Amino acid sequence: MKLRDQLTISFIAIVLFVGVSSALLGRYFIAAQVVKEAERRVQSDLLVASDVYRNYGRELELRMNYLAQDQSMVTALNTPDRSLITRNLISAQKRDKLDVLMILDEKGNVFFRANNPLWNGDSLSHDQMVKRGLAGESYSAVQILSPGELRREGARIGKRGIRNSGDASMQKDPNEDAGSGMVMRAIAPVRDEKRKILGLVLGGIMLNNNYDLVDRIVRLVFRGERYEGRDVGIASISQGGVRISTNILNENGSRAVSTRIDPEVYDDVIRKGKLWLKRAWSVDAWYLTAYEPIRDIDDRIIGTLGVGILEGKYEGMKNQIVRVFLGLTLGGMAVALLISYLLARSLTEPIKDLVMMAERVERGDYEAGEEVDLKMKRRGSKEIVRLMDSFGTMVKKILRQKGRLENIIQSVGEGIFVFDREGRITTFNRAAERITGFKHNEVAGKSLSLVFEGFSGLMENVASGPVNDRAGETVQEISLISKAGREIPVSINVELIRSEEGNMLGGVVTFRDITEEKTLDQMKKDFVSSVTHDLKNPLVPILGFSARILQGKFGVIDKRMMEAVQIIHSSGEKIMNLIENFLSASKIEGGKLELEFTSVSLQELVKKYFSLIDLYRRDKEIGLAMVIPDDLPLVRADKVQLERVLGNLIENAVKFTSRGGKIILHAVREGQFVRIDVEDTGIGIPEEFIHVIFDKYKKVKGTTIQGTGLGLYIARSIVEAHGGKIWANSCADRGSCFSFTLPVAPEGYSI
Fold it and tell me: pTM score > 0.70 for this model?
């Protein structure tokens, strides 16, 4: 039977696709519609809750206006006689269930405090609400009162301040200071017959552990609706991110105050000031919630007002509708699946055999290609016969190409081995055998990290590196242990082979023995170290005696001799600087660079160095400027080594800047680091040299200015030893900007 007759199965596939797609899309749209309806309701509920919240403040404001119109207030403030209002205020406080009630005089000083009559006379003129009241305005708003402000209202109020929520990682909100509280306050001016303001009436209701407002919201919005034994609706008020009033219950039946709101809600509503309309976890269940920020009189966000509907209720509705829809869909699909199964049996067997042979080829078993002819004889489909014939031809071509590739790999002078996706060695050439002492049959199929020490860390670095369009690649020097146990330094290149999806398929390792190079490099280092020390010994007295001659310690000399001695001293200093650079480079390479960290002022250091090079830059008529803010923190650094870094960068800027140019040094704090920029208008650096100028002995080609190529290498090493970074930005003929960072000195760090 021909394959085209068997392709009728595609019809069944279409039926399955349509059926599954319909089921998935139907379930999605049903779920989306239910969630959308729930979101509309919870958003509407938040609007109602917000109105209740605002009316709560307006009611309080009306009560304060009512008290302000009491004649006894006018009389007491004119007298002044506190006894005239004591009874009225205490009675009003109990009647209106006020936590805060006080009378202030026309200057904003407390005249009478109902909770604490003995504490008066303190000034609240700095309070924004009091300022509005003295301006003749009646006003209500929520404010955060500090622990001290609450204690002044009495011990009973002070004990209701916010408690630690127990999550130390979240205690970063200044509104959550322990002992503080959120209070709905209102103020109204007390006026005499001529409308003159004699004082103010200020009252408040503390929202912490006060459930009157949230219970009122729940009654008006959800009307006692329940689902599976629990309230459908919730309402809560938070101070910062900590709930201070809610109808959500803990497992023991108590109100879930002092618990935190969902971190995502906190981030969107408190930090970003957005309206939240999503699902959120509240103590012990998921709710479809809506939150809005609570702002104080200064429009600062100090908490949240939120409502929510139990997600389980809508999940139940959604699941019931989905079950009915899926039942109908699955019934129709079952019939189509039965038909497709019967048609597929005649096609799947030969395809299954072909897949198994392909998998064997993938594992390296190329004998599968020779079995294709036997498989073909058991199949009557012409299309299957042609497919298997093509497969056998393909395997034979792969074998020929594999043979040619192995011949090339074996003839290469460098060591090469190939590994698969599990890190097992599959190819090991003759050069690799010569270098390591291992034979191909001794390492084939074994893990790289088991055969060669030092490969585990290298492979992890390569595998976790960036994936580009071709492969992951890294070059590094490591030590391999040969079969004889000898440590061999090698320069190694690992190139990963990845699929289009970025999955690692294997890799190729090329390496060469660099023992002789290492020996020659060490000889060079020893020679440079020896020569620099031998040059330094006679140079010290030359500099010393030439300096004493210039200072006149050996008597007066004529002008020509003075110029000659100055040339000797200047040349000696240049040689000494070269020697110091060579010695520093040697210390850095040997890991012997020692740093003595202290707190260093960049302003003082830069001013000192500017004064040292002032004459040099004046000769070239170069402008020199320093832009460092006064509040720039001290940096943690070795002062001597930091001077070398700054000196190198500034001297380079002067050296490579033409007459009449400009050099600017900027410094700015960036988090826990200070960034320093040395910017010039000099000749600039070609783009192809930007990434190598910090390497040892690297110099920009084409420049006539001489140097050792060690200065920037030493500067980079010193900065990195401080825990900072250094980089450069430049364009040819447009100047350069060298930047580096240093850590800010911790507070109390000794100078």
Answer: no
